[in-house]
Amino acid sequence: MLIALPPNLGFFSMTYSALIISTHRATGWSSRHMQRSIRLVVSCLMLMICFGLSQTAAAAPVYLAPPTATSDGPRTGSATAPFVKLSQAIAAIEAGQGDHVLLQDGHYGDVYWTDITPPRMIRIAVDNPGRAHFDIMSLKRMKNLHFVNFSIWPRQPVKKMRSLVNADAQSANLIFEGFDVRGRADAIETYMKWSVEDWTSTWHSNGFFLRGQSMTIRNSTITAMDFSIQTTGPDAVVEGNHIQGFSGDGLRGIGSNNLFRNNLVQDSFKVDTNHDDGFQSWSPKRNGPDSTIENLSVVGNAFIEWTGQVDHPLHGTLQGIGLFDGFYKNVRIENNLVLSTQYHGIALYGARKGSILNNTVLHPYLRSGKFPWIMVKPHKNGTPSKNVTVRGNVAVNFQGIPSAAKDNMVVSPVTPFYQNPRMGDFAAHPDGPLVDSAFGIKFDATMLERVKKAFADR
Q1: Could you tell me which of 53, 96, 207, 331 has the fewest CB atoms within 10 Å of its CB?
Q2: Which range marks the domain in which residue 236 is found?
Q3: CA distances from 321 to 58, 305, 359, 376 (A)
Q4: Is residue 138 part of a domain?
């Protein structure tokens, strides 16, 4: 008995032949054992064939094209007959057609995607990064989707300020990875030359504004925004991103169980009355006077006020990490670099428990004096902060911390703490006090190089 196998299953065909030959050699073709062996071989092969076919289907992409794409026949989700609606592509995957969506080249314009909630995470990726463009991406009631390598910026001057990537509070479990979000197409090359009108009117946009639970933004670049990344729901993860050029805040985290890690935030522009922060959080007052943000972690980030010309007319003044309106419980501020000409390098108001460990807070032009400082203060209603560990930090000054002198270091302009901080080299100076010490930032080589490159590129 022979079985005709599909031509694309050559491996299984060879396996089938080998099994038959082996069985023949072992038994001869005439015995009853031979018939049983053949039945066993056939059963095994059918399982292998089913597995192979399912794997082939699962590995295949379902294609999505811009809304204006044409097709000569029915849209099947193939490369030559792609869908033009994301809901169709996701439905095809749920029906077993493939396991991920690939976006073809072209302009997708303003997209408003709603009510797509597959039961498992589905990857939606741009096939050729940089070749699929969106003007805005708005999501409502969306869940379990992983967006990869999207390029988003307005092609025309904006009529009113809006967030280029936004998700409502009913959306959840969304991942945004490898995004390139800009105020306009050439912003990476030109934002240092923008006028006040460019920042406040012509190209005035926010970056990410995500309100739902379990939102992740990672390894993305956000350029020339007002407020670059804002998360207001619980369980957000914001990591590995590069924010360059902003006129509001670089990062905002207004939810519990939020993690902000390994982000590089640079170049604050002064174009209005906003007090720009590298990172800012507060506990929403709608939750009552005892409102508390819990388990907030700000770890391994670099907040650099300015990398451009010192005499630039829009040179901003950046507050580093500002937690001004607590309460905060189990807050962790660790291993961050802050370069700021403002008073607040790191400020924590209304802590119920927390730690500020191994941060470096410096004036960008290496001045000593009273600020920027690391400060722990009571809540604005007068309730003292308590159970806050402040240890291993290097800063210009410390405020409201009784053990600051014993457990931390105050920088001196004549002591070489770092290799070349004016040029962004924050490796410990071999002749300084930080070599093999427990003080200051402990960036890995990748993060040190990212900071150095931020200065070199300007």
Answers
A1: 96
A2: 67-74+100-457
A3: 45, 12, 11, 12
A4: yes
